[in-house]
Design goal:
Number of helices: 4
Strand content: under 5%
Number of strands: 0
Largest sheet: none
Order of helices and strands: HHHH
Oligomer: single chain
Number of domains: 1
Structural class: mainly alpha
Low-confidence stretches: none
Radius of gyration: 16 Å
Mean pLDDT: 77
Shape: elongated
Helix content: over 70%
Length: 73
């Protein structure tokens, strides 16, 4: 979200190295989004999580999956 908006209007005069920089920025963006979501879920109490049909263990699993996916991608 953040990186894509930040780099949308930029034009690079140097040759792009197969989009490696862009790929790195997109991975960073995905990691930051995952961390933000995890923080929001961790801040919720059990009742709020149950309203979303989640439990504490679900939050742990979703966070671990997101971190793993950002390392694999």
């Amino acid at each position: 979200m953040f990186a894509s908006h930040a780099i949308a209007g930029l034009s690079f005069s140097a040759p792009r190295r197969d989009g490696r920089v862009l790929g790195l920025l997109l991975k960073l963006e995905a990691w930051l989004d995952a961390r933000s979501s995890a923080r929001a879920l961790y801040a919720m109490d059990d009742r709020g999580l149950s309203d979303l049909a989640l439990s504490r263990s679900d939050v742990e699993r979703v966070n671990a999956d997101a971190v793993h996916a950002s390392h694999v991608a």
